[in-house]
Write the structure tokens for this entry.
Amino acid sequence: MNYCEQQETLLKGQIISQNKQADFEAFWESQITALRAVPVEFKREKLTTPYEKVFTTYQVSFSTHDDTVVEALFSVPSNQEGNQLPCVAYFHGGGGKKRIYPDVVSTGVCCFAIDVRSQGGTTVDQARYETGTTMGSLMSRDLTNKDKFYMKNIYLDAVRAMDVIAMMPEVDSSRIVTFGQSQGGALSVVASAFSGRSKKCYVSEPSYCCLHRRLELGSGVFSAANDYLRRYPNDTNAAFDTLTYFDINNIVSFLKVPTDFCLALADPVCLPQFVYSAYAHVDAPKQLHLYPFVPHYTPDEYTYLVHDEFSKL
């Protein structure tokens, strides 16, 4: 048994159970139904970039479930007029922003990358939150209300992005895949699980797994949510109940497409036992890639593997 096999054996003994509420499925079915009842509206404008000789990029703005306008970049390989191509929905990590991905487009596919609301990009959150807005963290915004919680909004934005991608004339809507690392990995799962438009889901060190443990530890973006509950202890039970609806450890139950996980065994943020638990609960064709001594980033070996699969779409 090699090193990675030994580590997986240990992880199998640390799987964290799902903690779905009785109305978990009904909640998400109602949310997606409500989202789809809102007509899709988008605008796009061709940009001038240094990459024009090999691909064209458009600035895209689209409507979502509330008054927020989500900003995105859509890149299309050159010399493909009249051909519909596969597309990668690429979701950035926490605090990041949309950007052009020449390495992805050079595999011969389109690439669609959104700005997650109120993070490092230009998508401004128009939702009106009642609590947790002064605690320095997005993850404490209406933490005790599943219908208004910040994470609900970014999850629905990811699903709406898939609807917009399917409307791009250059895209073959039967060949859309999702990809992301950390927060982006979580959004990749959400977009594939709820949109009904994904051919395959690629996930690198997904965040938002086993959220009750993340909150208890106060790790990463949940440090301020931890501080919020220290100040308002009477909100603790409601907060933990809310998080169950947005936990990737639970949401993977909705995945019906092949799913590919990258797990970094030295990740101090998205702990390996949290990521492995989510992987274990996927009830669809799945594959796991373990990387020893890798912290919180996507190793080059996995990037190459994924790009090779993009090129074969």
